[in-house]
Specification:
Probable transporter of a GTP-driven Fe(2+) uptake system. This protein is of the alpha/beta class and 265 residues long. It has eleven helices and six strands. The structure holds guanosine-5'-diphosphate, magnesium ion and potassium ion.
Length: 265
């Protein structure tokens, strides 16, 4: 069965979007913990399964909610991920986007709450954002039911959404550690290159859910090789590289929009 997953930070409009896409009744609310378990519905007039996951700021779980998302990406293989973001808080939201893009599954980035962004007078060049991240970008106002038809069309054509190839330029020593671990995971455990690399990055980043998974599955390329590195230094480098990438991206996307170079919000 085809399934698509909604992933994003808390309060970005995931449940609002879920409710307008699916037939199934679901409670909308923003109390923390209201969606600790994933909610499943079906896309209206289709058999496509839609999964509403709890909000998370990172795949490295600090809370039970966040652990659900990390475990979902470890154990499930959705045909498409909808990454819902608050368009006015992209700097923070895109940190999760990068982690999910690195997983390598087809993904559409949704800049939701586009009404708020427009009201604030801000705009971004969507083509630039799409090119740098290597994924499709759509805008929605989930509360006002805007952009839903276009999104629905993209979901139905999920087979045309390519797998992302995002490769951030992590510092050389870190890059080498990632590559070594990833190559061993591919060779010895048959992981695909994208998943192997994602597991290596997440393990080095001290993701608790991934470390548990690596221990249970005895992923020795991770548990034996990587532990010799300075874990905290690498985790800092991962965060700093992602943040610098996002800051550049948003700076350029704003400038291009201001110059009217191409498609704007
Ligand atoms: P979730 O935590 O990601 O599931 O977010 P919710 O769907 O619960 O939405 C959080 C709040 O944002 C609710 O009050 C929604 O009505 C509101 N909201 C959702 N989408 C939009 C949107 O596109 N624009 C605006 N202005 N508000 C929205
Ligand atoms: Mg929700
Ligand atoms: K249905």
């Amino acid at each position: 069965m085809t399934s698509i997953a909604l992933i994003g930070n808390p309060n970005t409009g995931k449940t609002t979007l879920f409710n307008s896409l699916t037939d199934k009744y679901a409670v909308v609310g923003n109390w923390t913990g209201v969606t600790v378990d994933k909610k499943v519905g079906t896309l209206k007039h289709s058999a496509i399964q839609v999964v509403d996951l709890p909000g998370a700021y990172s795949l490295n779980p600090l809370t039970k909610d966040e652990a659900v998302v990390a475990k979902y990406l470890l154990n499930d293989q959705p045909d498409l991920i909808l990454n819902i973001t608050n368009a006015s808080q992209l700097k923070r939201n895109l940190l999760l986007t990068i982690e999910v893009l690195e997983r390598g599954l087809p993904l559409i980035l949704i800049l939701n709450m586009i009404d708020d962004l427009r009201r604030s007078g801000q705009s971004y060049d969507l083509v630039l954002i799409s090119q740098r991240l290597g994924c499709k970008v759509l805008t929605t106002n989930a509360r006002g039911h805007q952009g839903i038809k276009e999104l629905r069309q993209q979901i139905i054509n999920y087979q045309e959404v390519p797998a992302p190839q995002l490769r951030l330029n992590y510092p050389p020593m870190l890059q080498q550690a990632i590559r070594q671990a990833a190559e061993a995971l591919e060779a010895d455990f048959n992981y695909s290159p994208a998943v192997a690399r994602w597991l290596a990055i997440q393990f080095i980043d001290q993701n608790k859910a991934i470390r548990e998974y690596a221990a249970v599955h005895q992923l020795t390329p991770l548990t034996s090789q990587v532990r010799y590195y300075d874990a905290q230094q690498f985790a800092d480098q991962i965060y700093n590289t992602r943040l610098a990438f996002i800051e550049d991206l948003l700076h350029d996307a704003e400038q291009h929009a201001a110059q009217g170079d191409s498609s704007q919000l």
